[in-house]
Amino acid sequence: MSVVLFEIREQVGCVTLNRPEKLNSFNREMALAMQQALDECANNPEIRCVYVTGAGKAFSAGQDLGEVTGDDPVSFKVILSEHYNPIISKIRALQKPVVCAVNGVAAGAGANVALSADITVAKKSASFIQAFSKIGLIPDSGGTFFLPRLIGMQKATALMMLGDKVNAEEAAQMGMIYKCMEEVDFEEKSFEIALKLSKMPTTGLALTKQALNKSLINTLTDQLNEEDRLQLKASATEDYQEGVNAFLEKRNPIFKGK
Ligand code: LHQ
Q1: Position 168 in a domain
Q2: CATH number for the domain including 234?
């Protein structure tokens, strides 16, 4: 069985971390397979939205600690530069919305992969742990970039230093994730978000993502210029024409992502 499952459902690329017996902790094979799945999502024009989740009871327990110990450990340099950093960069660079459905515990790099998605939702029983400090490491996988921006410096610092477990409801309340969702129909309801996005004007959504990526580092003046540039692109899409026409004709629009 593959350590990452990949399938296309309608126009959604579904990526499932699949080492449930190891709480989907990342070893080299899984990190590289996830990158391959993200590349397929980026390059396949049929795919208009990406949905990432975990198999079994966990989303991901972060780094497989068995791989960094023992006789032939994988080096930290390799783990960061070949595993996590490319995963985070690929998620942010993907010109399609990435929905992450956190189905259980997300710890260490597992938590920060989840927080790098465009829209992160979590099952009520799921939790987030910045587990790094407990083993003497610093938060990686973009955590020190995204978490303070999501929840503010004080809370991010406390969670990263104390390594507290945050449940899904608290995570939603503090703005770490978009929504905490009910247990019973979590897969179906979280997938509906991805499905809805895949039927929207996805070129416009990609341009929105570009603007938001830039907003994390831009001045207001630069950001206004960026909005100007990207809005011109959005206004030239077929989907924009379709959206306006459908509104005026009082019908449902059919968007093609073009
Ligand atoms: C695991 C793991 C795991 C291996 C559970 N590895 N087996 C970057 C640079 C380079 C190196 C290091 O890492 C990084 C980035 C990072 O991600 S650092 C942070 C690494 N992750 C952690 O420190 C989390 C460790 N795990 C836990 O704290 C707990 O397992 C959590 C809170 C995730 C879940 O707790 P429980 O639900 O109580 O499950 P459990 O602890 O009983 O685990 C179940 C099994 O999974 C168990 O194996 P066993 O054979 O006893 O059933 C664990 O050993 C194994 N497992 N996490 N990361």
Answers
A1: yes
A2: 1.10.12
Q: Which of 99, 105, 101 is nearest to 167 (CA)?
A: 105
Ligand 1 binding pocket includes 66 (Cβ within 6 Å):
yes
Q: pLDDT, tens digit, for every residue of 172-184?
A: 999 999 999 999 9
Distance in angstroms (rounded) separating the CA atoms of residues 158 and 151? 11
Domain that holds residue 238: 202-248
Atom of ligand 1 nearest to the CA of 105: 33
Give me the number of domains the chain comprises: 2
Q: How far is the CA of 203 from the centre of ligand 1 (A)?
A: 38
Domain boundary among 159, 179, 198: 198
Q: Are both 206 and 151 inside the same structural domain?
A: no
**Ligand 1 and 128: CB distance under 6 A:** no
Same domain, 186 and 236: no
**Which ligand 1 atom lies nearest to the CA of residue 137?**
18
80: DSSP letter: I
In tens, the pLDDT along 192-240 reads 999 999 999 999 999 999 999 999 999 999 999 999 999 999 999 999 9
Query: Which of left, alpha, beta for 77 (phi over 0: left; psi -120 to 50: alpha)?
Result: alpha
174 and 214 share one domain: no
Alpha helices in the chain (DSSP H): 28-43, 76-78, 85-93, 109-115, 143-151, 153-162, 168-173, 186-198, 202-215, 220-235, 238-248
User: Shortest CA distance to 213 belongs to which of 223, 204, 224, 221?
Assistant: 223
Assess if residue 131 is contained within a domain. yes
Q: Which pTM value belongs to this model?
A: 0.97
